[in-house]
Design a protein that fits this description.
The protein is mainly beta and 188 residues long. It has one domain: Lipid/polyisoprenoid-binding, YceI-like (Lipocalin). Helix content is 10%, strand content 52%. It has two helices and eleven strands; from the N terminus they run H-E-E-E-E-E-E-H-E-E-E-E-E. A hairpin with a 2-residue loop joins strand 8 (114-123) and strand 9. The chain has helices at residues 2-13, 80-86, and strands at 20-25, 31-38, 41-47, 50-55, 65-71, 75-76, 99-111, 114-123, 126-139, 142-152, 172-185. Strands 1, 2, 3, 4, 5, 6, 7, 8, 9, 10 and 11 form an eleven-stranded antiparallel β-sheet that branches. The two termini are 34 Å apart.
Length: 188
Amino acid sequence: MMRMVFLLTAWLLAPVAQAATFNQFLPAESRLTFDYQQMGVNLDGKFNRFQAQLNFDPARLAVAQARIDVDLASIDTGSEEGNDAVVGKPWFNVKDFPAASFVSTGVKPLGNGRYEVSGKLSIKGRSVPVTASATFQSSGNRGVFDGSFTIKRLDYAIGEGEWADLGTVANGIQVHFHFVVTAAPSKK
């Protein structure tokens, strides 16, 4: 009986372990890439400059938030000629629309560190709902989000005029992200 009282007292007096809120984005360790098809050939590229404002506590998904802003002029298609072309008016039109942004609207747990993240992606003044599949793994105060989603480029008027031909560049673009974050203890 005494042992039970001791264990109960120790449990009640023990400091409560605080969950962590992952909210410090590490851009130098993160990646934002994409895959597409041009004339039947699989190609890939990346964006070199992007920022994220994240607020993620796996125990408090109702208040999870994400905003990702991408500098579209930082695109790297793998060729200088391609980079020069896609910043122009028919593609991203970075003169009038220099950034793309994703703002989350909800996070749904799928189990085993897997999540479904819903939100709106805005490119060239057009906002379209998207859903990303993501995983989250943490070790101490460091976490990593890995995931992907697919967009239809014509929904955003990416590739107008002669470039709207889906035989030249496919409509589906697969976007991949690898975001590294750190955390501070949550204040509950």
